[in-house]
Write a structure and sequence with these properties.
- By secondary structure, the protein is α+β, with helices and mostly antiparallel strands.
- The chain has 16 helices and 28 strands.
- A ten-stranded mixed sheet has the order 1-2-4-3-5-6-9-10-13-14, sandwiched between helices.
- The radius of gyration is 27 Å and the shape is globular.
- Bound molecules: D-phenylglycine.
- D-phenylglycine binds next to helix 6.
- InterPro entries: AB_hydrolase_fold, CocE/Ser_esterase, Galactose-bd-like_sf, Xaa-Pro-like_dom, Xaa-Pro_dipept_C, Xaa-Pro_dipeptidyl-ppase/CocE.
- This is CocE/NonD family hydrolase.
- GO terms for molecular function: dipeptidyl-peptidase activity.
Length: about 625
């Protein structure tokens, strides 16, 4: 008997050589508080888009929140492996989950699980797109399918997303489906040349090459670049030029690299894609809340541009809203208690999502009666509190702050003294944008770089810093500072980086490490060849004083008594921005080693050539 029992049990045993990968495995979902469905939604041209739908178990009559992404819908809908919907969805979705929303993530055409071909920030149908589809039609077709097929929904859809996902929200507004009741573009990419992602005022951002490697070398995740060099400063410098860097890593073969290299200026390729222009020319029908971080290190331009373009259509303050938090790029969806060394009054991002975003969504997607949303909600920094404003920009008088001899800064024009200061800008030793070694992809470096203490460059001989006396009263900067630089160069092209900096008092008893901190409040780069026309660049005339006028990013910041104001000027910001060769070449992407030359830059503060920054100032601020 014993031996026959043993034989029977050995019969039931799993053969040692049975293959160990399950052909189709599904973990039990009984314990989960949500249901997840994956569907392929057909578009009008037959292409099917991979879509993940997540909803609480037992959902009835709930609104849908849709995000269209190039960043892997399946991954976006599974932050953690968990039976809890709250833990499964992204951190920023907390309030949607608590409110019982149906959450939908979709891969844009050509990425991850979706069919079709991928075109980077695919232009709308029109001069650049002669196909029958774009992000507006894909959003339309998706919403049409969702309201017809997701029986648990109440037929109302909101779109929301940050950065590229914010761009796809704006694209849907170009021709919105009637069921699209509300839109929340966050840190949206709007104009890749003027000041979002690829260029700022014509200066190319080299981190773009890393992005193209990760996004366009494969339908799914691409590879990181194997530079073999720890310090990105060296990696980019040794490649010689952007074209050299691209070639070294095979990125010159990518079609988007080719498109970028073929369009270094603000030509029709860029103008036809500028979403502020496009949307401003169409009727706004969907309530839209555009959200951005004051120190958005990727898309600091577009949110304000879109808001400004749409605002003339919103006389009654019912359609167009702007929110600016003290955040980095996409910071609205994470913890907003700090940014770099800056500390705020709590988790400002969560505060916004709970107190303003969710009620706004509920009003439009659940017909709830909620407190009115302020037309503009802005966390004023320096004083650190949420301000409710009627519109933006606020009516302020521009107050000119002038560079002065002796590296001073004052509100009266210079009366005499040395007419200029000068420095040698050497492309072989460009000024780093963060301290070396530069690790551009390190989040701890990249995300807070716009608030980094500038003392690491202030004393370089090729950086000029002009400093005011300590302020006696608070100074509110509220709007976009405008640079008016009178400068001459021995070269035939030049980059100008101008920073408006809040210099903290020498001692900060409550946060000692902030003593003397040089906080950039607003700063940007301008490529000199575009001073007369963004579309048609022209050589700078060597040794001639020319005027460079350009706007810096928007701020709403109070410089407190005891603090000083600083204006800092330099001619490179490396390796984030490619180097200007400083001798004229038609297309900087293809500059050759011999084109990179030292130049002597003169910054003028003479009575007839007085450099100044127009500050959008209110003194004292209206607290
Ligand atoms: N800033 C990123 C991006 C947006 C659009 C185009 C390319 C890059 C992003 O964070 O999605």
């Amino acid at each position: 008997l014993v031996s026959s029992l043993l034989a029977a049990s050995s019969l039931a045993q799993t053969p040692p050589m049975a293959p160990d990968i399950a052909p189709k495995f599904e973990a039990p979902t009984d314990a989960a508080d949500y249901v997840k469905k994956v569907v392929m939604i057909p578009m009008r041209d037959g292409v099917k888009l991979h879509t993940v739908i997540v909803m609480p178990k037992g959902t009835r009559g709930a609104p849908i929140l849709l995000t269209r992404t190039p960043y892997n819908a399946a991954g976006r809908a599974s932050r953690n492996a968990s039976p809890s919907m709250l833990a499964t969805l992204p951190q920023g979705d907390e309030t949607f989950v608590r409110e019982g929303y149906i959450r939908v993530f979709q891969d844009v055409r050509g990425k991850y699980g979706s069919e079709g071909d991928y075109v980077m920030t695919r232009p709308l149908r029109g001069p650049l797109n002669n196909t029958k589809t774009d992000h507006a039609t894909d959003a339309w077709d998706t919403i049409e399918w969702l309201v017809k097929n997701v029986k648990e929904s109440n037929g109302k859809v909101g779109m929301l997303g940050s950065s590229y996902e914010g761009f796809t929200v704006l694209m849907a507004l170009a021709d919105p489906h009637p069921a699209l009741k509300v839109a929340v573009p966050m840190s949206p990419m709007v104009d890749g040349w003027r000041g979002d992602d690829w260029f700022h005022n014509g200066a190319f951002r080299v981190n773009t090459m890393h992005y193209l490697a990760s996004q366009t070398t494969a339908r799914g995740s691409g590879r990181e670049l194997a530079t073999g060099i720890y310090d990105d400063y060296d990696a980019v410098l040794r490649a010689g030029s952007v074209a050299g860097f691209a070639k070294q890593h095979g990125l010159d073969k990518l079609t988007y690299t080719k498109k970028l290299f073929e369009h270094p200026a603000y030509d029709s390729y860029w103008q036809h894609q500028a979403l502020d222009r496009i949307l401003g020319a169409r009727k706004l029908t969907v309530p839209t809340m555009t959200v951005v971080g004051q120190w958005d290190q990727e898309d600091i331009y577009g949110a304000y541009a879109v808001y400004a373009a749409l605002e003339p259509q919103d006389k009654d303050n019912t359609l167009n809203y702007l929110v600016v938090g003290p955040w980095r790029h996409s910071g609205v969806n994470y913890d907003g208690s700090t940014l770099g060394a800056l500390k705020f009054t709590g988790d400002t991002a969560l505060e916004f999502r709970r107190q303003f975003l969710q009620p706004f969504l509920n009003r439009h997607l659940k017909d709830e009666i909620v407190p009115a949303t302020p037309p503009v909600l802005w966390y004023q920094t320096g004083t650190n509190y949420w301000q409710h404003l009627e519109s933006w920009p606020r009516s302020t008088a521009a107050k000119a702050v002038y560079l002065q001899p002796g590296f001073k800064l004052d509100f009266t024009p210079p009366a005499g003294g040395a007419p200029y200061d000068e420095y040698v800008a050497d492309p072989a030793k460009p000024v780093p944008f963060v301290p070396r070694p530069v690790r551009m992809l390190d989040r701890d470096v990249w995300q807070p770089w716009l608030v980094r203490d500038q003392r690491f460059v202030t004393d370089r001989p090729d950086v000029l810093s002009y400093l005011s006396e300590p302020l006696q009263v608070p100074m509110l900067l509220t709007g976009a500072p405008v640079v008016n630089l009178f400068a001459a160069t021995t070269g035939t092209d030049a980059d100008w980086i101008v920073k408006v900096i809040d210099v903290y008092p020498d001692e900060m008893p409550n946060q000692p490490a902030m003593g003397g901190y040089q906080l950039p409040v607003s700063m940007d780069i301008f490529r000199g060849r575009y001073r007369n026309s963004l579309e048609s660049p022209s050589p700078v005339v060597a040794n001639k004083v020319e005027r460079y006028r350009f706007a810096l990013p928007n701020v709403n910041h109070v410089i407190l008594p005891g603090h000083r104001l600083m204006v800092q000027i330099q001619s490179s910001w490396f390796p984030l921005y490619d180097r200007n060769p400083q001798s004229w070449v038609p297309n900087i992407f293809h500059a050759q080693p011999a084109d990179y030359v030292k130049a002597t830059q003169r910054i003028y503060h003479a009575p007839d050539a007085a450099s100044f920054v127009e500050l959008p100032v209110q003194i004292p601020p209206p607290f």
